[in-house]
Amino acid sequence: MNKVDEIMEDFSTLLGIGLIFIFMGTVFFIIGWRTSRLIHVWRATKGVVIPTMNEGNFVFSDDGAQPEDFPTVEYAVEDVTYQFTSRVSQKPRMPIGKEVEVLYNPEDHSQVIINTFVQNGTLFKLLGIIFESVGFILVVISFFDIF
Q: Which residues pair with 65 in a beta bridge?
């Protein structure tokens, strides 16, 4: 293999990895953006992290039962109480009894987001920006490596 072939192989590898990072970053960013844009439209109320009825959702320790990674929150809107279990894992776990801000859809009070860094899409947007930045850097390096 001559020097030109080696350079082209390195170029292709860096370019491919860079494009994969850009794609993954874009997907993460879109997921985060779709979730976080609701913050500006939905209404806020207070909720409390509660234990779920499924024993499999708890981790037992010396401190007692702790909720699983997917917190369940109880909140009230217009004197009607609702419960919501997040589909987004939360580490560290939210302790039972913790008061949290809940964002709900004013047209459907059962559509909810727990307003934390992890739950409201901010983490996904941040990861997207990081992945895209690394991807762009790899693409630029791949082009400079040719010359």
A: 60
For the purposes of burial, counting CB atoms within 10 Å of the CB of 30, is it exposed (0-12), middle (13-18) or buried (19 or more)? Answer: middle
Measured distance CA(38)–CA(28) in Å, rounded: 16
Tell me the C-alpha to C-alpha distance, in Å, between residue 58 and each of 68, 85, 116, 132.
5, 13, 21, 36
Confidence (pLDDT) at 116: 85
For residues 80-106, average pLDDT = 87
State the sign of the Cα–Cα–Cα–Cα dihedral 9, 13, 14, 16. positive
What's the longest Cα–Cα distance across the chain? Answer: 76
- This prediction has a pTM of 0.68
Give residue for tokens 């609701």: 38
Where along the chain do its domains lie?
3-146
Amino acid at 54: N
Place of tokens 């409201």: 120
